[in-house]
From TrEMBL:
Cited SUPFAM superfamilies: Nudix (SSF55811)
Gene3D superfamilies the record matches: Nucleoside Triphosphate Pyrophosphohydrolase (3.90.79.10)
Keywords, alphabetical: Hydrolase
Cofactor(s) in the UniProt record: Mg(2+)
GO CC terms in record: cytosol
GO molecular function: hydrolase activity
GO biological process: nucleoside phosphate metabolic process; ribose phosphate metabolic process
Domain Nudix hydrolase residue range list: 45-181
InterPro entries: NUDIX_hydrolase-like_dom_sf (IPR015797), NUDIX_hydrolase_CS (IPR020084), NUDIX_hydrolase_dom (IPR000086)
Record flagged with keyword Ubl conjugation: no
Domain of life where this protein originates: Bacteria
Name recorded for this polypeptide: NUDIX hydrolase
PROSITE patterns in the cross-refs: NUDIX (PS51462), NUDIX_BOX (PS00893)
Length: 189
């Protein structure tokens, strides 16, 4: 996000202590000077960012992938998504993730929104795209990804949310954007 936001309650970093550097995330502890003059520590997860795709078929269905999510110790049904590679354009990443995870390419794609997942402790940003005019192909998931592609109707997606099979914010947000599209004929700007 590039908008200039006033720094009314800015915390000035005094020091940064790296704690962990992983393949996807890193963890650091910052000591900060508070606006009121005191000091505090902040545990911060650094993430390269990600993309997610609301992919709609001509039959008014949404493409989803089911996969096991170790932090939850269960399978989840989600929209296609993945992390950005270093220096990667989010639009190119969205097209790549759609094709890798579902096999589909798209004739039309546009950014719906970019949002932070957990700004209280992480800097991860997700760029949510809408893809239409889907062209089927062959999925090519990463070697450590085991996915099942599903096409859901709107009612099925709502049922999955109620049942907890869909419970992540990006996918719920995408389903609600789809609902707006179905009601108004256009996706949110």
């Amino acid at each position: 996000m590039t908008r200039s936001i006033p720094k009314k309650f800015e915390e000035i970093t005094i020091s940064t202590q790296p704690v962990f550097q992983g393949k996807i995330i890193s963890l650091q502890v910052d000591t900060v000077k508070l606006p009121g003059g005191g000091e505090a520590t902040r545990e911060i997860v650094k993430h390269p960012g990600a993309v997610a795709v609301l992919a709609l078929t001509p039959e008014d269905k949404i493409l989803m992938v089911e996969q096991y999510r170790k932090p939850l110790e269960r399978s989840q049904v989600e929209i296609p998504a993945g992390k950005l590679d270093a220096g990667e354009d989010p639009l190119a990443a969205a097209q790549r993730e759609l094709q890798e995870e579902t096999g589909y390419r798209c004739g039309k794609i546009r950014l719906l929104s970019s949002f932070y997942t957990s700004p209280g402790f992480a800097d991860e940003i997700i760029h949510l795209y809408a893809a239409e005019e889907l062209i089927p192909g062959t999925a090519q998931p990463d070697e450590d990804e085991f996915l099942n592609v599903e096409e859901l109707t709107f009612d099925e997606a709502q049922e999955y949310i109620r049942d907890g099979r869909i419970s992540d914010a990006k996918t719920i947000m995408a389903v609600y954007a789809w609902q707006i599209y179905r009601l108004t004929g256009s996706l949110p700007e």
